[in-house]
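Please, structure for the following, as tokens.
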Amino acid sequence: MLAKMNRVALYLRVSSKLQTTENQLQPLEQFCKQRGFEIVRVYAENESAWQSGHQKEWARLMHDAESRRFNAVVVWALDRITREGVSALFLKIQTLRRYGVSIISLQEQWLEGLGEFSELFVSMCGFIANFESKRRSERTKAGLARAVAGGSRLGRPSGSKDKVRRRRSGYNLRYANNPSVKIGTLPAMAEEITN
């Protein structure tokens, strides 16, 4: 099966702008070179998936996978795909399998030789990634609570201004859909806003 996996895509993801995907790129390129894989495309996410609400590069990867542009996706580790838990990880892997695309993980290379047991180990990796993500969130919230209890004020300093003007798209619609706002119609709301 590995002999057919000569065209691969790399998927790189870091969780914040303070990190870089370069730390994943070089070892993955070296790994592919050693295996004789041709890297067709590199997909790199440089933001937290939960903050952005989606993974744009992953969506592009899935579209290209459906078009059969590569036979495998090489990742640094399975938790780079998702930390949403076992079901989310399985869904993504199963979708790729339907397209005839395999997942190869640099950190979990033992998955390739497990055959039928690979799903068991993938589920364990998904569970651990989700558990780790929840723990990190709990530690962050505990740290914020301790800071507030110690008298620190969270958020931006009062009176600070944005350096770049924010987009207000959807603001009026959210305002109109807010049940606490007591106005009659959308035209009445528009008139109230303009006056």
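The first strand starts at residue 7 and ends at 14. Residues 2-134 form a domain with the Rossmann fold fold (CATH 3.40.50.1390).
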